[in-house]
């Protein structure tokens, strides 16, 4: 059995920025109301001519360049998304076509906000089993396309973007064992459904579950990697709400870790949120090569998945 590692990461956000002040002109809200409840100040919004696969391809191209690899080096493409409007071709095939990846296995992973960590675990398993040599793992969502912009409880939350990682075989395993699961009876708590599809959630139910159950689950992910929470250099949780992220990081016990707070400038980008925040930490030098970083996603279904990775 061989190991796998993240060779490089990359991210992309559309140029359009929507501020809290902009939203106050659209619905009954204010900057103070939004920041006090969710901590978000701005979010990036894609235009009508910027589809999900375009966001994903930009992030993937940056990750490939950072890894010093070309599309021809990739034999597995996994795209985590819950905003693929068409059933076929899937986003992974579209991204592969945009990049010129010649003959990859191409699969979408729809686990909503926990999609990237599920896809990363799937790539890790495929590489370690020998069925893939090098994988491109992308989290990308265009939440603005499934948002009711008259609903102030949800429209203030969302943003668009993508993050990506190149996963490849390694002598030692740089991606820890995944801890994943779901709470099926709470699957209704986060939804993207209907015609046209619209995002809705039961915010208080998600908040209560996340703040009571997630700390122990995150610690279990650390245990699977053979680490204590205080060994972590960084914690990258799904960027849903700053009022969830900050207390969770404290309850996990990651006292020496940098905590990703990208939600303040990007909003909730669903499957993109973890790779987007992680890539920004790497880009600005907040973490160093080899540092242990906890990635933990949670959200729709109600699904969760987390693992400790070594920083590229």
From TrEMBL:
Catalytic reaction equation(s): malonyl-[ACP] + acetyl-CoA + H(+) = 3-oxobutanoyl-[ACP] + CO2 + CoA
Lineage top rank: taxon: Bacteria
Entry annotation: catalytic residues: 113, 238, 268
CC per GO annotation: cytoplasm
Keywords: Acyltransferase, Cytoplasm, Fatty acid biosynthesis, Fatty acid metabolism, Lipid biosynthesis, Lipid metabolism, Multifunctional enzyme, Transferase
InterPro entries noted in UniProt: ACP_syn_III_C, ACP_syn_III_N, FabH, Thiolase-like
GO molecular function: 3-oxoacyl-[acyl-carrier-protein] synthase activity; beta-ketoacyl-acyl-carrier-protein synthase III activity
Listed pathway(s): Lipid metabolism; fatty acid biosynthesis
GO biological process, one term: fatty acid biosynthetic process
EC numbers: 2.3.1.180
SUPFAM superfamilies assigned: Thiolase-like (SSF53901)
Domain Beta-ketoacyl-[acyl-carrier-protein] synthase III C-terminal: 222-310
Keyword Cytoplasm: yes
Span of domain Beta-ketoacyl-[acyl-carrier-protein] synthase III N-terminal: 107-181
Family: Belongs to the thiolase-like superfamily. FabH family.
Oligomeric form and interacting partners: Homodimer.
Domain remark in the UniProt entry: The last Arg residue of the ACP-binding site is essential for the weak association between ACP/AcpP and FabH.
Name the UniProt record assigns to this protein: Beta-ketoacyl-[acyl-carrier-protein] synthase III
Protein species of origin: Streptomyces griseomycini
């Amino acid at each position: 059995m061989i190991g796998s590692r993240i060779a490089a990461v990359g991210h992309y956000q559309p140029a359009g920025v929507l501020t809290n002040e902009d939203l106050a002109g659209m619905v009954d809200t204010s900057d103070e109301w939004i920041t006090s409840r969710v901590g978000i100040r701005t979010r990036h919004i894609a235009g009508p001519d910027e589809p999900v696969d375009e966001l994903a391809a930009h992030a993937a191209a940056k990750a490939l360049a950072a890894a010093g690899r070309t599309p021809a080096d990739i034999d597995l493409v996994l795209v985590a998304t819950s905003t693929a409007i068409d059933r076929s071709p899937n986003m992974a095939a579209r991204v592969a076509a945009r990049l010129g990846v010649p003959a990859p296995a191409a699969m979408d992973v729809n686990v909503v906000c926990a999609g990237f960590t599920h896809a990363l675990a799937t790539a890790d398993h495929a590489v370690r089993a020998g069925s893939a040599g090098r994988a491109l793992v992308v989290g990308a969502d265009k939440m603005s396309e499934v948002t009711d912009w008259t609903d102030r409880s949800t429209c203030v939350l969302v943003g668009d973007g993508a993050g990506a990682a190149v996963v490849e075989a390694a002598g030692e395993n740089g991606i820890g064992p995944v801890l994943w699961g779901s709470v099926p009876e709470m699957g209704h708590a986060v939804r993207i459904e209907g015609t046209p599809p619209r995002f809705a959630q039961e915010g208080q139910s998600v908040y209560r579950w996340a703040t009571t159950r997630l700390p122990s689950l995150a610690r279990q992910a650390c245990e699977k990697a053979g680490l204590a929470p205080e060994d972590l250099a960084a914690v990258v949780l799904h960027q849903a709400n700053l009022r969830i992220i900050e207390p969770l990081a404290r309850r996990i016990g990651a006292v020496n870790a940098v905590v990703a707070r990208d939600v303040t400038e990007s909003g909730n980008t669903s499957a993109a949120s973890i790779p987007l925040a992680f890539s920004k930490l790497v880009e600005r030098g907040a973490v160093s090569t080899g540092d242990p970083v906890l990635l933990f996603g949670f959200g729709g279904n109600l699904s969760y998945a987390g693992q400790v990775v070594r920083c590229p």
